[in-house]
């Protein structure tokens, strides 16, 4: 390979720098998470476009989408490599996807819990406390917020970052009103809801809620044991939900990735565009940007990424 051709796409390098600026890897929970540049694909000059694809999960369908579009890099919220690999084979579907992307020159970056700590949790709190539509908060109800799990070591420029939130309303809200805010804000047809078994039919939506513990994705480890009226997360185990309602709490779950996906479309995409422009402009000014590349680029959310579970009404017509 000629020395003048870089091994890694200059555009991909700029994307990684931009994401790390917005969601530093120091914000991630390193006790279990695997964030960062998980696939640094070889640079195939003039083979791919200067474009980014945002997705929650990097599935075969999303990989097909990125390949057909000619994207240079995928930002996948969930790490496709979560634990150590001893081999890369075609038999494993995720490894097969990684091999295909490497062959095409498409890199993969995963920010995961760094995003949780730096904005996603507050975005969910905005939805829970505001009249909103398509992820855009409206007028807020009076409330206070606190972090469930603060960062062990503060990160400069990100005061108050951490995992999970507790919301305490100044005036109690009805469970029905909170459900309306969530379905509207996350654009969902319905929710999974559990309430104490002593509450009669017809009275459940009128349950008064003064405090909420919330966490994106799978919230059991973060929310268990909280002294709040309502637990809101993507998913909670059967036994965790039973324990909660027997303690007099309510539970709302929206399916794991439904608490995350719209954030990519409404917040991350909008924040990434100007930051990436800054990184590219700086590279051009420094003369480190390839002459055959321009500052024109695209950032798109995946059209095929979706939660594996669907909410299906009975009878099953049209499903």
UniProtKB/TrEMBL annotation:
The keyword Nucleotidyltransferase does not apply. The keyword Metal-binding applies. Keywords: Metal-binding. InterPro entries: DUF34/NIF3 (IPR002678), DUF34/NIF3_sf (IPR036069). Pfam families: DUF34_NIF3. A divalent metal cation binds at residues 78, 116, 256, 260. GO terms for cellular component: mitochondrion. GO terms for molecular function: metal ion binding. PANTHER family: NGG1 INTERACTING FACTOR 3, NIF3-LIKE PROTEIN 1. Belongs to the GTP cyclohydrolase I type 2/NIF3 family. This is NGG1p interacting factor 3.
């Amino acid at each position: 390979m000629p020395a003048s051709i870089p091994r890694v796409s200059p555009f991909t390098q700029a994307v990684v720098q931009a994401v790390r600026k917005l969601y530093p890897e120091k914000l991630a929970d390193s006790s279990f998470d695997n964030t960062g540049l998980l696939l640094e694909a070889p640079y195939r000059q003039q083979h791919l476009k200067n474009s980014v694809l945002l997705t929650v999960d990097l599935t075969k369908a999303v990989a097909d989408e990125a390949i057909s579009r000619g994207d240079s890099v995928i930002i996948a919220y969930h790490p496709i490599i979560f634990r150590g690999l001893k081999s890369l084979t075609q038999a494993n579907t995720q490894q097969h996807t990684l091999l295909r992307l490497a062959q095409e020159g498409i890199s993969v970056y995963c920010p995961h819990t760094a995003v949780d700590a730096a904005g996603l949790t507050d975005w969910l709190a905005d939805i829970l406390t505001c009249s909103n539509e398509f992820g855009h908060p409206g007028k807020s109800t009076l409330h206070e917020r606190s972090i469930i799990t603060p960062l062990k070591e503060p990160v400069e420029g990100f005061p108050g970052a951490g995992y999970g939130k507790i919301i305490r309303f100044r005036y109690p809200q009805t469970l029905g009103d909170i459900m309306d805010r969530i379905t509207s804000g996350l654009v969902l047809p319905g929710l999974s809801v559990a309430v104490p078994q002593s509450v009669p039919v017809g009275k459940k939506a009128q349950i008064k809620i003064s405090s909420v513990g919330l966490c994106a994705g799978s919230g059991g480890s973060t929310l268990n044991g909280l002294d709040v009226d309502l637990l809101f997360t993507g998913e909670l185990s059967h036994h965790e939900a039973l324990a909660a309602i027997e303690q007099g709490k309510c539970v709302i779950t929206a399916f794991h990735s439904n608490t995350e996906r719209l954030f990519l479309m409404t917040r991350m995409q909008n924040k990434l565009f100007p930051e990436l422009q800054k990184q590219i402009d700086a590279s051009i000014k420094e003369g480190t940007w390839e002459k055959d590349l321009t500052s024109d680029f695209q950032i798109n959310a995946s059209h095929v990424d979706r939660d594996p579970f669907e909410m299906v009404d009975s009878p099953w017509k049209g499903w």
